[in-house]
Design a protein that fits this description.
globular, 480 residues, 50% helix, alpha/beta, TIM Barrel, 11 strands, uronate isomerase, domain 2, chain A, 4-stranded parallel β-sheet
Length: 480
């Protein structure tokens, strides 16, 4: 490093804090009170298999850091590195022989492209994971890639380096997975039947049996729903009964929330006759794209009704055109880094749902957006009025320093922090969880420090708000 710049770098203890030395001192003092709090992880995509097997070990650094993490492989793909060269498995029926299986080679490719993550949140997460979890203090380069690989591999092979032990080392208090409505939850059952007391809970995600009623695979999913529920799904009422039965099963397995993805927050309440007609066209393979749009919008209202009755917290992730890269989707399947944001309208699209359930005493609806422009204009005023609404933290592209700072600047004045839900990591990469939470806690404390030094809040407020944003809000919102 150029010695003339070294003096400007903050101590590691003050990283990500902004402002002058006074504000940084306040931020540091606040952060020290929340740094050791347990982690509440109410929404994520870690595979429950990691915890079902007490002896599970990660195969390699590539398996731990790279292959499951679309934040990583999408960046390399954008620079011309094929997914198969990064070890990402293809769909069944594709030529998986073309997928690189040498994890050292995959790691070397990653190291040769590590500079692509400079100035990105992924770069911060990776750097902190390597430092905090494996003691790697030198920057990853093509020259030291294999040495770093060996250092990590040695740690991965240690008897105590299991997901269950890491769960405890990370001070995780509760962690939820995201599971299809048709999932048998066999791994969750294995966890519950073991002598381990880690709190791993499923989350009910019915997208595959709700969205895409105009697509051939929807009928296949209905067949799976019929099989796991034991309900003979022949019409719309029996379909609703099957979904309610599955929700009851998830609740019995510890679930406290549902999760729903839709391109837009469009909601509509269909009559029983209209819903039945669309459902029958779906079973017959004759539903249209317009049918699919209406059915998803109607089912969001139905899911709100169910959540009001059974108490499962409803999460709605909107604003993403999923699997935008059609060729990649055909070869590799969903969730390969090609979810692209688009414009949204919450104010008008949510009104049918809110007209019916906006003040429901038992419903809690958490809204996430990839259209950042809606945060101040729509989400904050909506959550600042309707009792059922809470605003989820910055998601996907905005789970970053700038995204978090924008969130605090745009949302909190109108909604207040108690109409937000704290933080969730929303990750498949288990090892990144404590790093992601620490980044949020640091940025939250930095924001609070700015309010305190400006005289907007006092020290009692600042400490209480830091605790809420770091721990209390997530625990209370998701009933964990």
């Amino acid at each position: 490093m150029n010695s003339s710049l070294r003096d400007y770098m903050p101590d590691r203890a003050d990283r990500y804090f902004s402002g002058g030395s006074g504000q940084r001192s306040v931020a540091r003092a606040l952060f020290e009170t929340v740094a050791g709090l347990p982690l509440i992880c109410p929404h994520g995509h870690v595979d429950p298999l990691l915890f079902a097997d007490a002896a599970y070990h990660f195969e390699s650094p590539a398996e731990l850091f790279l292959i499951p993490d679309h934040y990583v492989f999408r960046m390399l793909y954008s620079q011309g590195v094929p997914l198969e060269a990064q070890g990402v498995p293809m769909n069944e029926g594709e030529d998986n022989a073309a997928v690189e299986s040498d994890h050292r080679k995959i790691w070397q490719t990653f190291a040769e492209n590590y500079h692509l993550f400079q100035g990105t949140p992924t770069g911060l997460w990776l750097r902190d994971e390597l430092h905090d979890l494996f003691g790697v203090t030198e920057k990853l380069t093509p020259a030291n890639a294999q040495t770093v690989y060996d250092t990590i591999s040695e740690r991965l092979a240690a008897p105590d380096f299991t997901p269950r032990n890491l769960y405890e080392q990370f001070r995780v208090e509760a962690l939820t997975t995201t599971d299809a409505a048709t999932d048998t939850l066999e791994h969750h059952r294995a966890i519950r039947e073991s002598d381990w007391d880690g709190r791993i809970y499923p989350t009910f995600r019915p997208d595959k049996v709700v969205n895409g009623i105009d697509q051939p695979q929807w009928n296949e999913q209905i067949g799976l729903l019929r099989a796991v529920s034991g309900v003979d799904i022949v019409d719309y009422p029996s379909y609703i009964s099957a979904l309610e039965q599955r929700r009851d099963f998830f609740r019995a397995m510890g679930a406290t929330a549902t999760d729903h993805a839709a391109e837009t927050p469009f909601t509509v309440l269909l009559s029983p006759y209209e819903a039945e007609a669309i459902f029958q066209r779906g079973l017959a393979g004759g539903a249209s794209a317009g049918d699919a749009r209406l059915f998803t919008a109607h089912m969001l209202v139905e899911m709100a009704r169910m959540s009001g009755e059974d108490g499962l917290v409803m999460q709605l992730h909107t604003g993403s055109v999923r699997n935008h890269n059609s060729a990649l989707f055909r070869r590799f399947g969903a969730d390969k880094g090609a979810d692209i944001p688009h414009r949204l309208d919450f104010t008008h699209n949510l009104k049918p749902l809110l007209d019916r359930f906006g003040a429901h005493p038992s419903l809690r609806l958490v809204l996430f957006t990839l259209d950042e422009s809606t945060s101040a204009r729509e989400l904050a005023p909506l959550a600042g009025h309707y009792p059922v609404l809470r605003i989820g933290p910055p998601w996907w592209f905005y789970d970053s320093i700038n995204g978090m700072r924008n969130f605090f600047a745009q949302v909190m004045e109108t909604a207040g922090i108690y109409n937000t839900v704290g933080f969730n990591d929303d990750t498949r990469a288990f090892a990144s969880i404590p790093t992601r939470h620490e980044l949020w806690r640091r940025i939250a404390c930095d924001w609070l420090a700015s309010l305190l030094v400006e005289g907007q809040i006092d020290d009692e407020d600042a400490f209480a708000m830091a605790h809420a944003l770091s721990y209390g809000l997530a625990k209370e919102t998701y009933r964990l």
